[in-house]
Amino acid sequence: LLKQQANRSSETLSTCQTDTKNKHPAKAGTRPEVPVINGNGKVAKAKSTNKMDNGSAKDNPPLAKPKSKKVAMDENINGTKSHGKGCKEQKKNGNILKEKVDIKHKRRKAEEHVEQQPKEAEIWFDDVDPNDIEAAIGPEAAKVARRKLGLGTGQSKQSVEQVLVKEKAFEGLTRAVAMDCEMVGVGPKGEDSIVARVSIVNQFGKCVYDKYVKPTEEVTDYRTAVSGIRPGDVKKGEDFKAVQKEVADILNGRILVGHALSNDLKVLLLDHPQKKIRDTQRYKPFRQRVKSSRPSLKLLCEKLLNIEVQTSEHCSIQDAQAAMRLYTLEKKKWEAAVKNKSNNKKSK
């Protein structure tokens, strides 16, 4: 009986194995299920032994597919960590963008600097003291103004002329003119004065009239050390009456600028409306600046224009130019003060 049961079990086992092989071929890495005969002689199903070396199938899920480059780059942009090429390119682009911003910033600053730089032509005869320019605009603008004025130490004749005369300016008569006369002494000890030379310049320092005058009396002191007049100069001079008329015609209706003008008008035997006289010796702001009630033209030029005039023999052209330059330095304020004074008189 036992032999018959064993044979039947053997046959059954053989049949099961054949069916299993036909229906479910074994996969690589797996073992076929082996039936187990229990103590009752019945076939029991064997437990699966499909395990990997590193553990069960449950503990080892299939590997994830690698992400594409595009996805990786998107993650880099979103802030994920990456050491790939995308990060380097992003950093490089960031540096280039920063450099462009810096270049634009520097260019804008340079343009602003150029715009802020004052034009020398505007500062040349703009009636503004360089000290006022420095206080209002800055040292660079004041530097330009002083350079155009030729201000500095150790002035040469050329640089003094550059201060007093505007180059390539109008050479005819202007609304304001400046006049200066050189005089010689007559009478006992040469104490009395007569005119020996008359010079007139326009608003830009250009000489519009310059003539020597024949003396109407015997000259007892030519005062050459101061006046620069010599006997030969007045000997070839023009008649006093002719000069007087020509000067009167020029001054008619114009603003007359000068230093201590009462003396010049006196020797010419002329008068001029007081409201049209601009005397640099009598201008109160000038006197306050140099702290003198009757400042000399030399002192005013030294303190306000930083130049030296009248270093040896006087020149009536240069003295007239110096007076005009002082006037143009304060022209706007000066004319405003005259206008206000006139309006106050009318209101009274």
TrEMBL record:
User: Sorted alphabetically, which CDD domains does this protein's record hold?
Assistant: REX4_like
| Listed InterPro entries | REX4_DEDDh_dom, REXO1/3/4-like, Ribonucl_H, RNaseH-like_sf, RNaseH_sf
Q: Point to the regions of Polar residues compositional bias.
A: 1-19
Main location per UniProt? nucleus
Segments for region (Disordered): 1-93
Q: Which Pfam families match?
A: RNase_T
Q: Where in the cell is it found?
A: Nucleus
Q: Name one GO cellular component term.
A: nucleolus
What keywords are annotated for this sequence in UniProt? Exonuclease, Hydrolase, Nuclease, Nucleus
Where is each Exonuclease domain found?
175-336
A GO MF term: 3'-5' exonuclease activity
User: What are the recorded Gene Ontology BP terms?
Assistant: DNA catabolic process; rRNA processing
Family matches, as SUPFAM superfamilies: Ribonuclease H-like
UniProt lists the family membership as follows: Belongs to the REXO4 family.
Q: What is this protein called?
A: RNA exonuclease 4
The primary gene name is Rexo4
